[in-house]
Amino acid sequence: MTKAHSLPIEVRGSAKQPLGMTPAQFLRDYWQKRPLLIRQAFPDFVPPIQPDDLAGLALEETALSRLIVHDEKRDRWKVKTGPLSEKDFASTPNSNWTLLVQDVDKWDADVAALLESFRFLPSWRVDDIMISYAEPGGGVGPHVDQYDVFLLQGIGQRHWAISDDPNAPSDFRLDVELKQLSVFEPTHEWMLEPGDMLYLPPGVPHDGVAFGGPCMTISVGMRAPSQAELTGDLADYLAERMSDEQRYNDPDLAPAKAVGEIDRAALARLKQTLPFAAGLDDATLIDWFGRFISRYRNAQAPVPPEKELTEAALVKQLAAGARLLRHPWARVAWAKVRGGATLFVNGHAFPATAALAELICRERELTPGKPASAVELALLLALVNEGHLVLRKARRR
Ligand code: SIN
Ligand code: CO
């Protein structure tokens, strides 16, 4: 394997090798790993679309476009999402603005033809070709993308700054809707000319600013579903194909040792019912199931008391013999977990002790007296303040 420190960050391309190397070398050394600037990836590059056509596309009802104007003096950013109007363009300043149009490959066959050069990637990994037009100073500000992107300079010059520091801060500026980084310290800067291309893997902070005159940048962007999206969709897919008769079942049930406990036998049955979840660890499976089953088929929920009880007030009431009534709409279950127990109530999980969790599941009414630990006190306080346990003051003698 090639050592990372001997890999150049800048190479020269050619008509034969737009990546400046073979696709196999690029995939091995750079793809999803590190940035690469390819000078003249497309020698004598002729842009497949002109700025006027791009502006025309931004007027279309269904085209996805954004017009971004930067007020440099006050560092304010104005974002107008498309469809744009002739008036929007007429009112742009002479500099510091950019127009971005997504999915241009879907509208324009010449633009789509650029994808021929990216055939070495699975075609379903390609998202779109986004094209930007900018006047000097125009850009979207420093940011991070979640996807691999090839930034090909089409017209004019663009100054690119990136950071290949893996520990670069990733906090966003809260005052700008563009998800701009609040701190950006570039490690590399380049001026790109037409035909130059910058490859960035996901997560590399970058900032491209139009320089000198009109600037067009063509971004070939990839797509990669998140684990959350994949998981959600897979669950829907599987659920759609299951019959209503396939259910959790327990013909082997033995008398409960502890009321309300999701025990080892229940966990084993769950794993049998959900064979595709076999890869999950027990703690995750129990935590999910406890939340799920304690809110499953709940027609109503308890209402929190009007006035929140303080910890001191609860301690005082309990010491005086106050009772706690389990709200009829509180559905409870519990499980032993590492270092204690979790009590599940109406879809929520609360740290608990096994003793108190079982007591709450077993008794509709309890008189706990002085809580045995900080965990128990915090549990009772949370349950009272969420309405799952209703405090009844001790009767005066
Ligand atoms: C651009 O302004 O053309 C590129 C936007 C980006 O950095 O993703
Ligand atoms: Co970007």
Structure notes:
This protein has 397 residues and is an alpha+beta fold. The chain folds into two domains: 220 residues, Sandwich (Jelly Rolls); 141 residues, 3-Layer(aba) Sandwich (Malonyl-Coenzyme A Acyl Carrier Protein, domain 2). The strands form three sheets. Strands 1, 2, 3, 4, 5, 6, 7, 8, 9 and 10 form a ten-stranded mixed beta sheet that branches. A three-stranded antiparallel beta sheet has the order 15-11-16. The site of succinic acid has 9 residues, from strand 10. Succinic acid binds next to strand 10.
Detail the topology: elements first, then pairings:
Blueprint: E1 10-12, H1 23-29, E2 36-39, H2 51-58, E3 65-71, E4 76-81, H3 86-90, E5 97-101, H4 104-107, H5 109-112, E6 126-134, E7 149-162, E8 188-192, E9 197-200, E10 206-222, H6 227-240, H7 264-273, H8 282-293, H9 311-319, E11 323-326, E12 332-337, E13 340-345, E14 348-352, H10 354-362, E15 365-366, H11 374-385, E16 389-392
Parallel strand pairs: 1-2
Antiparallel strand pairs: 2-9, 3-4, 3-5, 5-6, 6-10, 7-8, 7-9, 7-10, 11-15, 11-16, 12-13, 13-14
This protein binds succinic acid and cobalt (II) ion.
